[in-house]
Amino acid sequence: MSASEMITAAHLRDRLAGTRKPRDPTDVVMPPGSEHWPQGMREQLTASLQPAGVLIPVIEHGASGLSLLLTQRSAELKHHAGQVSFPGGRMEIHDADIVATALREAHEEVGIAQGDVTVIGCLSPMPTITGYAVTPIVGLIDGGIELQLDATEVEYAFEVPLMFLLDPRNKKMVERDIDGRMMTLAEFHYGGERIWGATAFIIQQLIKILNK
Fold first, then answer.
1. Residues 42-97: pLDDT tens digits?
2. How many domains does the chain fold into?
3. pTM (whole model) above 0.85
4. In the Cβ-directed half-sphere of 41, how many Cα atoms lie within 13 Å?
5. Which one of 106, 114, 183, 197 is most buried, counting C-beta atoms within 10 A?
6. What is the C-alpha separation between 164 and 73, in angstroms, rounded?
7. 163 belongs to a structural domain
């Protein structure tokens, strides 16, 4: 899929058709380059992970194309406060599976009802330094939906065109000091928003599938 070729919901369904929810939502895929990360950080990413699910809401805008819905997390939260993320959270005992977790959390955080989401695929679980194994669930949502944000968790929500993210010129490689070591990490900057960390890695995983 080239950066100039408009991607449609049909393309998205086709690329994700072979994906399946994980049998074990804690069986994570490590981020690229993590073999060069500090030993303590790598151990932190694999020890006693709790399963969590996030929804990648793909908003359909007809002729205007597709966009991804993201949230700015509340600065008062215990984990990932003030960061850009997809709606999601940890798996609860009453969740049927990790897909149910992502859909429940999306409803709680931004008001997207389960019936308004067409799940079309899953990405591999990935670890976070806060002790979670996060499984991204991809879902199509009509562009006319009205959000209802939970102010205790989400400051605001915004959309990024999928075509923007697919254009390799919009991926920025930056140097960050992590535990005293300079590391090169990917970020996306759009409309004054900085998308980094686990969310940027999830987006890269989605792009990799779409570019196959």
1. 666 667 889 999 999 999 998 889 999 999 987 554 554 468 999 999 999 999 99
2. 1
3. yes
4. 15
5. 106
6. 22
7. yes
